[in-house]
Amino acid sequence: MTPPSAAPRPYDEAAAQAARERVAGLATPAGALGRLGDLAAWVAGCQGCCPPRPLDDVACVVFAGDHGVAAHGTSAYPSEITALMVATLRSGRAGVSALAGAHGVDVRVEDVSVGRPSEPLHLTDATTRERAGAALARGRAVAAEEGHRDLLVPGEVGIGNTTPAAALVGALLGLPAHEVTGAGTGLDTEGVVRKTAVVQTGLDRCREVTDPVDLLAALGGEDLAAMTGFLLGAAEVRVPVLLDGVVSLACALVADAIAPGTGRWWAAGHRSTEPAQQVALDELGLVPVLDAGMRLGEGSGAVAAVPLLRGAVALLRDTATLAEVLGGTGG
Asked: Which of the seven top EC classes does this enzyme belong to (predicted)?
């Protein structure tokens, strides 16, 4: 059985609709705000108020873990890099650290399974169901601890983690490996062929697995399970989430399978270069805020999009309405 999950508190569609109506009434040409108006309405629905409150308190939580499948040539880098990147994150010198510092975002690192790699998913289950369940609970607990925030960003670091992410997306959407497997950290053509074969073998092995937690155990690993729990927990404490790249989108698909409707609490921060991310975005009906060709991971693409989300809220809060302008009130 799937571990029990609290149903997400209702997304406030009335507040979102009020925000859309306010956007339509601003002293701007019709449609001039583009997607910023949609984003502001989404934040209003998550917060349950219009206009929404500023997104002052934002945190990126980076889930770290190693993956045994990397030993089979599915990454351009060795697994030892994961621990080095965790140390770099904790020293505040990683790519996401620089972006977070520039944009006033806190960074928290959760070492879930660094130095304790999951099993190669194409040979056997990545982890046990019990460990996957414990990791889900850990992610939920992290979300509860960060429940005072205005916005959360899930990040990840772990050599080889785009392989289980691609496998999860393929399994959940019934897609073959060649439609969900990409170059990850920069594999050459031969490496992508090798990685695709590994993903397909994992999909074939798990063809009869349908329970989302069983899929996390079979194909994902503990770090992906923890991120999935984090997404579920964020919805349970009513904190909106700005998703990042392919790993967070794979976890989002799993979370939505565990608790349908959870996806109302998510927006997509950026479009990565991984094909599995795009099909997951389409499945969840999400349009990324940024499309800058990034593939760094760490939550960096979503953190880079935070200023646009803050700007969308500011526009809705502080722009005069047409009625105010015509009435000469000045707001």
From this structure: transferase
What is the domain partition of the chain in residue ranges?
58-305
3-state secondary structure the chain: CCCCCCCCCCCCHHHHHHHHHHHHHECCCCCCCCHHHHHHHHHHHHHCCCCCCCCCCEEEEEEEEEEHHHHHCCCCCCCHHHHHHHHHHHCCCCHHHHHHHHHCEEEEEEEEEEEEEECCCCCCCCCCHHHHHHHHHHHHHHHHHCCCCCEEEEEEECCCCHHHHHHHHHHHHCCCHHHCCCCCCCCCHHHHHHHHHHHHHHHHHCCCCCCHHHHHHHHHCHHHHHHHHHHHHHHHCCCCEEECCHHHHHHHHHHHHHCCCHHHHEEECECCCCHHHHHHHHHHCCCCCECCCCCCCCCHHHHHHHHHHHHHHHHHHHCCEHHHHHHCCCC
Instruction: Give the pair of three-digit tokens for residue 24.
Output: 């339509």
pLDDT tens figures, 220-271: 999 999 999 999 999 999 999 999 999 999 999 999 999 999 999 999 999 9
What's the CATH fold of domain 58-305? Answer: Rossmann fold (3.40.50)
pLDDT at 32 over 50: yes
Residue matched to tokens 């999009």: 305
115: left (phi over 0), alpha (psi -120 to 50) or beta: left
The pLDDT of residue 1: 37
Q: Which residues are catalytic?
A: 298
| pLDDT tens digits for range 8-18 | 568 999 999 99
pLDDT tens digits, 73-100: 999 999 999 999 999 999 999 999 999 9
CB atoms within 10 A of CB 80: 12
